[in-house]
Known about the structure:
The complex is a heterodimer. Chain A is mainly beta. In chain A, 6% of the residues lie in helices and 15% in strands. Chain A has a three-stranded antiparallel sheet with strand order 1-2-3, with no helix packed on it. Chain B is an all-alpha fold. Chain B has helices spanning 9-18, 24-41, 49-60, 77-97, 108-121, 127-133, 137-151, 156-159, 167-180, 190-200, 216-229, 235-247, 250-262, 267-298, 303-329. In chain B, helix 3 (49-60) packs across helix 4. Chain A binds chain B through residues 27, 29-33, 35, 53-58, 66-67, 70-74, 76-77, and chain B through 109, 116, 120, 175, 178-179, 183, 188, 250-251, 254, 275, 277-282, 284-286, 289.
Amino acid sequence: MTRIPGDARSQADDDAPPLEEAGASIVAFPDGPLLVRGDFELVDPDGAALPRRRKTVALCRCGASGLKPYCDGTHKQIGFKATP
Amino acid sequence: MKQPSARGPVSELVLGIITGTGPAGAALAGLSDAVDEALESTPDLLFDDDLQLTLFCLYELHYSGIDGASTDWEWNPSLIGARGKIAAAMEQRLRREVTLSELPAATSEAVAAELFRITGEAGGPSMSRFVAKEATDEQLREFLINKSIYQLKEADPHTFAIPRIAGRAKAALVEIQADEYGGGRPARMHSALFAKTLRELDLDDTYGAYLDTTPAITLASNNLMSLFGLSRRLRGAAVGHLAAYEMTSSQPNRLYSRGFKRHGYSEDAREYFDEHVEADAVHEQIAARDMAGGLVEAEPELLGDVLFGVAAALYVDELMTVQIMDAWAGGRTSLLHSGAASTV
């Protein structure tokens, strides 16, 4: 983006999310996974990035996923309950 | 899309009109009566090859177009009229068939709970368990061919709903669709992943390549999405339909992948299914609560249509699964031409 002094659009870095949305949010879905959106890193205990193919991810919290740390929908089969 | 072959008088009339092989004036004038006659005499519109192919071609003018058909036909009033008649009959057929249980409260939480209940109880034979454990190589190919009509334009019909909804529901629909379209990476588009699977099995990955061998009920499953997607009135049903797809996808795709692995197919061939296990575990949460639930909270009068969209999606796709699996159980092909699943 061409930066024009005084142009409101030039105040944020090109790749940065809008200011009011900076950071990440985690939504705990009832009976389901943790949905993580926004600006975050998912790493192993040594700090190395885990394979990640999408911006928003669902993290397993029932313990039964075959794709951990991601959710694969198995919580529905095992009748996992959590509120929220 | 390549021009398909006509399957009866109405599709012959329409294909003749749009590809300019007949005198358009007389054909256009007779189209309305021809559609009426076909609708009156069909035993079941959902299984009617001539009418489902006609509807598919008329909708296709709004997607990739049809080879040899001028783009001017897209909004021709006589064609739109014919399309509207078949679409209205299909909607009536489904509204009669699909009974909704007592409606939940018009809150995101109640709608999501009801959607998880309905999609969790969806009955019928299990294509995914069959593919995982029993399907032959030939049946895997037929499975892909039946899917190819939609999956090579995966997500497109529901995208039409984006400008028709607002706020939380719109943001959720766009978040899902952005993922369907690869998050900005063309090779990660779900349609591109499916094309790769077809190529890995030496099948033709051209959009519509297998249309001529696809049974009416598979076309009906596709037409249902266009019927919902192309109508603002039915935006609730479009949202419900997408939610039903996202909420019945993760585990079946795990089983599909297992079936292709059983036959020795590579990770590249299975990537489409593996991607859906992970993607749809994300999408189903967003679809149920933010998209469907968010839409109902914003427009409570759409609650019934959201649930109708869910039920219609499950009903039509169950009919399709039953027909395909019945054919296989009887030792027959599920396609219209035997040998169509041979490699290219």
